Amino acid sequence: MVSVGSDVWAVALQRGCRALLLGGASSLALLGTQAKAAAPAAGAVASTEEIVVTARRRAETVLKVPYNISAVSGGAIESKSLTTPNELLRTVPGVSVVDRGPRNAGQLDGARIRGINVDSAALGDYPVSSVSPLSTYINDTPVFANFLLKDLDRVEVLRGPQATLYGSGSLGGTVRYIQNEPDVNRFSGKVTSTQSYTANSDGAGWSGDLTLNVPLSSTLAVRGTVSRVYDPGFIDYPNLYKPGADGLQQTLNGASAPTASDYYRQNSVNDQRTWYGHGALLWRPTDALKLVFNYNYQDDHVGGRQAITEGTNGFGTPYGRYENGAVIKEPSAREVNVESLEATYDLGFATLTSSTSYYDHRGESITDNTGFYGHLLPTLPVGFLYYFTYYAPNRLPLTTFVNTYSERAVVEEARLASNSKPGALFDYVIGFYYEDQDRGAGSRNYLPGFEETYLQTPEADPTFVSGDRSFFYQRADRFRDVAGFGELTWHVSQKFDVTGGLRYFSDKSDVNATIGGAVLTRNNIYATNATHVSEDKPLGKVNLSYRLDDDNLAYATVAQGYRRGGSNAIPITGPQKEDASYLNYTSDSTVNYEIGVKGRTHGITYSLAAFYIDWSDVQVNIQTPTFGYYAVVNGKSAASRGVEAELSGKFTPSLAWTLGYAYTDASLTSDIITAHSQFNDTPYVAGLKGTMLPGVPEHTLNVSLNQTQMLGAGIRMTNRVVGYYQSSTRNGVTPGSQNVGLDPFSLWTLSSTLQWRSYEATLFVKNLFNAKAATGEFTQAFSGSDVAANFYGNDARTQIATPTTAGLTLSYRF
């Protein structure tokens, strides 16, 4: 086992980081010099009031939206070298992220807004039944796909419940990724290439992008982006099982040792290969009518986890800083396609919009679950001890999960939004929404080599076994949602507005599940069940806003959020039955009370807000107390309260700054107690009153400096410093081995850009101080080594940020 803690910088510097870090240091020095006055660089951060958003379904500047919203321009995303949603969201005040890296990145949303999250930060291996407490949109398509950040016009982050306009899943907020549309006026394009080096990586990472905008006529244009990303990874696996001639893990021949031939080492296992593509076609046959067709595609292949094992293996040897103790590689793959047709027609008094979407998102991952089984099985009935009786003593123990997920949907939204005009008494948005979604999830558990091992025992019964699969489940969920919605704003005076919003929905969910096993049960089906859940109800919002003057606004809002209920894939009959109360779970809801002010004064753009969120019927993902099935249950209540501040300005005409701060106090306000186990009469406690909600820091801080200067000969230099800090967090709410604290951390990025005519070169260093930045953990007590089961690897894992990465991006615009 090789420790790399003290050698990280040396390795990185030997591969080119020295020059890049010196370039970043020179950028910092330049911040202290007197720069020549210069116009903002291309891609520089725009002032807050300059970004036009459509959060209220009509175009307006951020400062006119009477609630707390942040917008990040596409230029700012490029200039800060932000390539993933996790990087982007950490620049937005009040947003924290559970960073699982690219493995299964499109499966679970790791963002937390205003503390609305109760699930363990360690989740990420299996597809949960509940949907995210945040709604995410690609243009007008409601889908979470975690696309690369390419060719975007802007990203809008709406804090707090947004159920009136954005429906189910907007408990804590909404994130909208708005892409650039084709331009009929000119041919243009951009070529970008990046090469980077990451600490502890075996080689260079690289990416390439090509964007083209092609007018076909005065009314027709196409635009497209193609991207390829390769990252060699930085997590080493020092104790992988060495397969035998049959491809299975080798049997034990007496005692093993850390250097035995049963194991081998592989470095940089968590490599990433991604293809991304976006194509758009715009047709504007008249001045009033516009149609835009969008297609988005992404394909990811990731070799392993972005997680480390802290502790020792079963032989007592400590793991190094970037080592993972799994005994097999744990790859993932996924593919997502999103298609949409958005049509807008200007009627003069209002704009009619129709958005029709289809998406198909599916993926698969492999998990080493040996440590979990080693710790779990001794607590279960004697019938489960076949693991120790036949398997673990005779073969290197290995329990693997193959998890799959799929989601596809057809979505239609039609709305009519008034064209706001000076002196109008009312403004309105009315609309209709329809969604037909199919979700699938599966999990297959294997004991590789079990059948062969069992059949070699004296008591073997060939009629009693069927392969190596020990458990499986498959869930199919069809969800249909029909809703009507509207918002009406009454301009009581030139300064005072009152807005009321209402959404009435009716949704239905039909779930079919099959649960069974094979090892020692001869393909036994434990249970099949079909459940139906439906609900219809109204959701509302009231907003008051008062314009203090032309540049400053005060507001107050009461708004509801909603997340649909559903069913769990668990058996309620048969040998592994759970209590029937675990079969269904109900919807949960939030009510957000918020007051705030925003505007511009003395050259400073600001937004200040205070909020309180009451969360009822809280949905939490747990493992059932009898057999450990993944299920969603309802708790009674939780609450989140806090303040958010976002400020920006300029020290000099060429030196701009931003500052963001958020305080969030989010906790359970009642116990979460569910049905007891079959094997004892003690109720299962899933959470205790007063417990801090997981993955939610009490304090976050965002800072940035952006300086520009002319160097002569038409060359412009832009230097940037971007920082993020979050205080400590909790890993989960359920009492036990997983409820641990995670340390505070900060992440810093330096970059320096030179621009000359159409050419641009950017040097950057991310995670400058090489922070571990742990955001989730499977603990030793939950899934570590288990010598009693002959498991000498270690499945404890801590999710960390990408280490120090230095790179160079070259681009050419035409």
From TrEMBL:
Pfam family, one: Plug
Locations listed in the record: Cell outer membrane
Gene3D superfamilies in UniProt: TonB-dependent receptor, beta-barrel domain
Membrane topology summary: Multi-pass membrane protein
Principal location listed in the UniProt entry: membrane
Residue stretches making up the TonB-dependent receptor plug domain: 63-174
A GO cellular component annotation in the UniProt record: cell outer membrane
Keyword list, A-Z: Cell outer membrane, Ion transport, Iron, Iron transport, Membrane, Receptor, TonB box, Transmembrane, Transmembrane beta strand, Transport
Stored PROSITE patterns: TONB_DEPENDENT_REC_3
GO biological process: iron ion transport
Family of the protein in this entry: Belongs to the TonB-dependent receptor family.
Protein known as: TonB-dependent receptor
Organism whose genome encodes this protein: Phenylobacterium montanum
